[in-house]
Amino acid sequence: MPIKEGDVVILYLNENRQYIVKISRGATYSFNEGMVKADDILGKNYGEFVVTHIGIKLRILRPTLVDTVYRLFRRCTQVIYPKDAALIALKANIGPGSVVVEAGTGSGYLTAILAHFVCPTGIVYSYEIRREFFEMAKRNLELLGLGDCVVLKEKDVRKGIDEREVDAVILDIPDPWNALSNAYESLKSGGVLACFLPTLNQVEKTVEEARRLGYLMIESEELLERRYKVKLGESRPETRMIGHTGYLVFARRP
User: Fold this and answer.
1) CB 156 within 8 A of CB 21
2) Could you point out which of 52, 145, 212, 248 has its C-alpha 20 to 30 Å from the C-alpha of 236?
3) Intra-chain end-to-end CA distance of the chain, in Å
4) What is the pLDDT of residues 60-90, one digit of tens each?
């Protein structure tokens, strides 16, 4: 399918030089390798080349969801890494048609991932109390065209959740234990609670409150991610890795 206005593309030179842009008719993109006009990309197919003004060829590639969210979105907060977002989506059983409550929205990274999974028939209700985060998340989500699957709410989830019989409630706030009662009332039977927490002290408070409220199947875990350098005779773990990002707590309403 030919590339059209509004599409997001990767312009690939090599493993170390690649750029992600949203195509806007009349725009010009400037890189170390020269300038590229959006009009020279429009109508091309993924896999073809575009040539910069100094003659360097860049291959046009289709981005994944991770490419778009983690490389194109602007951020004003710490964000949830793909490894954690993926486990949240899987263990919360989120898919097409799911109804999900999320708080807080932050820069909208997890919101976009959840919306991608629930579309086209599901919906994500995302609560955020800070206006600047609310506005940035709104702009980021517009890049993916996910507006129909997200309702952004400038409200405090600790003071109440409007929705009932939802499939999952996901909390990325400093004190989720103060929202667990509201989450319990919002979830349907068998619905999943997921919390992202930076410290073990927060995990302890959250788990104890979940037990007190009657949540079942409470689990706490963390994920570590390590990349590998792979080359014949030289393969080894990379020197750097994504270690601790946060703890995850999962539970279910009976």
Assistant:
1) no
2) 248
3) 47
4) 999 999 999 999 999 988 899 999 999 999 9
Pairing label, strands 216-221, 247-252: antiparallel
* Exposed / middle / buried, residue 130 (Cβ in 10 Å: 0-12, 13-18, 19+): middle
pTM of this prediction? 0.91
CATH architecture, domain defined by 67-252: 3-Layer(aba) Sandwich (3.40)
Mean pLDDT, range 112-135, rounded to an integer: 95
Q: Is 178 exposed, middle or buried (0-12, 13-18, 19+ CB in 10 A)?
A: middle
Q: Are 23 and 3 in contact (CB under 8 A)?
A: yes
| Cα–Cα distance, 105 to 173 (Å, whole number) | 9
C-alpha–C-alpha distance, residues 108 and 130, integer Å: 13
Three-state secondary-structure class, residue 207: helix
Rounded to the nearest integer, the mean pLDDT of the chain is: 95
- Give domain limits for the chain: 8-63, 67-252
E strand segments, 52-181: 57-61, 99-103, 123-127, 150-153, 166-171
